[in-house]
Write a structure and sequence with these properties.
By secondary structure, this protein is mainly alpha-helical. It is 70% helix and 4% strand. It has a three-stranded antiparallel beta sheet with strand order 3-4-5, covered by helices on one side.
Length: 477
């Protein structure tokens, strides 16, 4: 009779047979105890099956757990080579190994356990490294658990189930961690979207038409780079952002439409101003024409900007007409300045005579002499413009000095002031005489307090008298 198992782990390799409990499969030769078989990864093709890769050298197997090394404590073999595994619920038959020794029979089913332990070990490393998402990890755990539960193997199957249960808890922790990370990402993205919407609304309320448009474009590119997390809140924030952009764009278009309208109006005004400036360019009526050009310049500035290319061309015409007029005026004035240079020499000589009158000794003589010089000054004619201020200032200084001396003499000889000064002298002299009499009486009476009071009054009146006498003398009294 051939041996049977419920899940053979390798292809036939000898004439020894194994039979699994409760299985009527066709007898197949059992594997000869030898090198440990390499376990097949969950879901992968069987060795030799279509699509399977060429077998590669197996990685070093993990250290054999103590429960595997102590195999006799986990199973036994009876006389008919039936193999049993010991569990918390008692013994359970896992298969038969009718041909071969009891040690070979036990080794066969122990290697099955080792293969399962190896799968659990790989799964632990994969999950702890985070190389599988929680969903894939949970599916892999379930698949391996199906293989471990009631497995026809000898070993500490309960420990494998415990390790799988621990992996369940770890996967749940990872799932919660990812959920928290996603919630944090959602909040961060939502917060940034809110900031973008806030900034866009501030820009929409402003009037920075150049920088505002550039900034809104940058914000739009940033928005597109943000991953959508929550459709409801994202849509609400997008509506705010989009509305702000639309509002800004409409206001910007309206602003530039109005600006274009104003520039067209400014263009019409400046065309007229340029034409008028050109009509005055050849005028020789220097004073009035210069005034008209100043008025034209004020009107030009008040007109505002025209379209740039047109504005530049009109300004070139306007400024060219101005330069032609003022250039001609400057040339004419230069010719006049050369003609008036001789007049300036005459006035320099007159100033020497006028300044010789100072300081004034005789007002009447100085006034008469200055009148003569002033007549000669007027007769000398115009002087170069750059000397007008200097020459006129020196002549005016001599005139003011003579007038100042004359005013001072009049002040001193004013009859009314002289009379008032003399009257003050008389009154103060009378007051002093009266105070002196009262002082003598107080001294005779021994009234010390009264004496001190009268002495102070007397000193004050005498001081005032001295001032009044000086004023009277100055006024010729």
């Amino acid at each position: 009779m051939a041996p049977q198992t419920s899940e053979p782990t390798s292809e036939p390799s000898s004439e020894v047979a194994v039979t699994s409990q409760g299985n009527d499969e066709t007898p197949r030769p059992a594997p000869v105890p030898g090198p440990r078989p390499t376990p097949r990864p969950p879901g992968g093709p069987r060795p030799g099956a279509p699509g399977a890769r060429r077998p590669q050298p197996a990685p070093a197997a993990p250290a054999t757990p103590p429960e595997v090394a102590d195999a006799p404590s986990w199973g036994r073999v009876d006389d008919d080579r039936t193999v049993y595994v010991r569990t918390a619920d008692g013994e359970r038959a896992v298969g038969q190994y009718p041909e071969g020794t009891a040690e070979e029979a036990l080794t066969f089913f122990v290697r099955r356990f080792e293969a399962l332990a190896f799968e659990v070990d790989l799964l632990e490393k994969r999950i702890r490294a985070g190389s599988a998402g929680p969903g894939d990890a949970a599916a892999a755990i379930a698949k391996v658990r199906d293989e471990v539960t009631d497995a026809n193997a000898v070993g500490d199957l309960a420990s494998l189930e415990q390790r799988l249960a621990a992996l369940d808890a770890l996967v749940e922790e990872q799932r919660q961690a990812r959920k928290a990370e996603r919630a944090e990402r959602v909040e961060q993205v939502r917060a940034r979207m809110a900031e973008i919407a806030d900034e866009a609304e501030r820009i929409a309320e402003g009037s920075d038409w150049r920088n505002g448009a550039n900034r809104l474009r940058d914000l739009l590119q940033e928005w597109k780079g943000l991953s959508r997390q929550d459709k409801t809140s994202d849509d609400a924030l997008w509506r705010r952002f989009s509305t702000a952009r639309t509002t800004y764009t409409r206001r910007r278009k309206s602003h530039f439409a109005e600006l274009n309208k104003q520039r067209e109006g400014a263009q019409a005004v400046k065309e007229k101003l340029a034409a008028e400036a050109e009509s005055l360019a050849d005028s020789t009526d220097w004073g009035p024409t210069a005034g008209r050009y100043r008025d034209l310049m004020q009107r030009w500035k008040a007109a505002g900007p025209a379209p740039k290319d047109v504005d530049d061309a009109l300004w070139k015409r306007f400024r060219g007409a101005q330069d032609r007029f003022f250039g001609a005026r400057d040339a004419a004035n230069a010719a006049l300045d050369a003609e008036f240079a001789a007049n300036a020499e005459v006035k320099d000589a007159i100033l020497v005579e006028a300044e010789a009158l100072l300081p004034v000794q005789d007002v009447k003589e100085a006034k008469a002499r200055f009148r003569e010089l002033a007549e000669r000054w007027d007769a000398a004619g115009k002087v170069p413009r750059d000397r007008i201020k200097e020459l006129e200032g020196r002549m005016r200084a001599v005139e003011n000095a003579i007038r100042g001396v004359e005013d001072e003499q009049w002040r001193r000889s004013d009859p009314e002031k002289s009379a008032r000064a003399n009257d003050m002298v008389v009154k103060l002299e009378a007051a002093i005489a009266e105070t002196e009499a009262d002082l003598e009486k107080a001294r005779a009476a021994g009234a010390d307090a009264k004496v001190r009071q009268l002495e102070e009054k007397l000193a004050s009146n005498r001081s005032f008298l001295e001032m009044a006498l000086r004023t009277s003398q100055e006024l010729g009294g």
